[in-house]
Amino acid sequence: MNNPLAARMRPRELEEVVGQRHLLSPDKPLYQMIMSGNIPNLIFYGPSGVGKTTVASIIANKTNRALRRLNGTTASTKDIKEIVSELDTFEAPNGILLYLDEIQYFNKRQQQSLLEFIENGSITLIASTTENPYFYIYPAILSRSTVFEFKSIEWQEIVPAIERGFDFIANENSAQLEIEPGVTEKIARGCGGDVRKALNSVENCFYCSKEDGGKRLITLESADELTQKSAVKYDREGDEHYDIISAYQKSLRGSDVNAALHYLARLIEAGDLPSACRRLMVCACEDVGLAYPQIIPIVKAAVDAALMVGLPEARIPLADAVILVASAPKSNSGAEAIDNALADVKSGNYGPIPRQLQNKHFDGEDAEIKGQFYKYPHAFENHWVSQQYLPDVIKNARYYTAGDNKTEQGFKNYWDKIKK
Asked: Looking at residue 232, what is its pLDDT?
């Protein structure tokens, strides 16, 4: 019984797998492939604890090929060579089904070493990864495989697995359980869609329980203590990190205050203050921008305060700033203007700086008209005078278009009146 509870009660039939009905319903392609016994090379992509290894194990039991397992975090090229050496021997007369967990940790050369055997069909590969396979898996492997995405499981779907987990561990230990109301829901909600994590909590609750009147009492208090942090799924180097900060920034830009606060809360719970602060500053400049230019120093002050006081107090100035940014009028005219200007510069579409704007220096002998001829705007009415500022080749370029907000339209009307 040294194996975790999730491993001891791992499903053996597809119908027993929790969730993933979008893949494992009888009318779905993956289900039909597995039941046919004709297994192609597969890549399972999704978060931890959602059934990737379980489904791979079920597939292995339904094929007549020798099953070999490797984990990308520990396996080496030597391990691959040992598996290859078994081909066409009595140990693997029909070929090998290789289950490679965490394939993203295999480097390019290690993945390439499998290519020949995947190509000729002597090895059928089932690989799993928690990272986007299109970023981490060698393209030649991808082109010979079918990718299926496993998704986080809704907490309601996990409740039956938790109930089976309590029954399973009670039978193992010949014990009777008394489970307080709300325990299974608390664990299900707290596991963040990870069945393995939920069953770990079940096991922890069991071994932390006290016997009372011949029964072990599983209390809501112990379930709360053992699952209080487990809902946070976060990896600062993984897809979850980029998905959360993307959703955070897009919610701010989309002026959805509640969604922006939700994703801020997830970043705070994960302790990722730098990402929360950086994206907030970006949104203040890029998405609110000139519609409310005063917001930039305000958000900067809130960010400085958050970084100064640290968590948990940092949540307060950050929440204030998030609400302000999400609620403020929006304009990306500044961001678009500089991108337009950069496009000209990067393409080489520019010329010499007009003479009147250059730093004062002597004209060369080749200059037909000598002198700088710069006009000082403050010496003219309304502190403005017409003169050319852009190089000749782009003198009519227009990068900036005023947004339709009160601030920018006010500036535009002011200068339209003066420059007419």
From this structure: 54
3-class secondary structure, 234: coil
Of these ranges, 36-45, 239-248, 269-278, 327-336, the one predicted with the greatest mean pLDDT is 327-336
How far apart are the C-alpha atoms of 79 and 130, rounded to whole Å?
Answer: 22
Contact 71, 101 (CB under 8 A): yes
Look at residues 323, 322, 330 and name the one whose alpha carbon lies nearest to residue 408.
Answer: 330
- Torsion sign (Cα): 405, 406, 411, 415: positive
Residue 68 backbone phi and psi in degrees, to 5 = -130, 145
At residue 61, the pLDDT reads 76
Q: What is the mean pLDDT of the chain?
A: 86
CA separation for the pair 324, 252 (Å, rounded): 9
Confidence check: pLDDT of 24 > 60: yes
Reference 412, options 291, 232, 309; nearest CA is 291
Q: List phi, psi (to 5°) of 66.
A: -70, 130
CA atoms within 13 A of residue 233's CA, in its CB half-sphere: 24
Alpha carbons 303 and 316: distance in angstroms, whole number = 10
Beta bridge partners of 149: 45
**What pLDDT is attached to residue 43?**
92
Phi-psi region of 400 (alpha: psi -120 to 50; beta: other; left: phi over 0): beta
H runs (alpha helix) in 232-288:
239-253, 257-269, 273-283
Which sign does the torsion angle of CA 29, 34, 35, 40 carry?
positive
Q: Which of 7, 47, 411 is nearest to 199 (CA)?
A: 7
CA distances (Å), origin 25, targets 19, 41, 96, 152: 10, 20, 27, 16
pLDDT at 50 over 80: yes
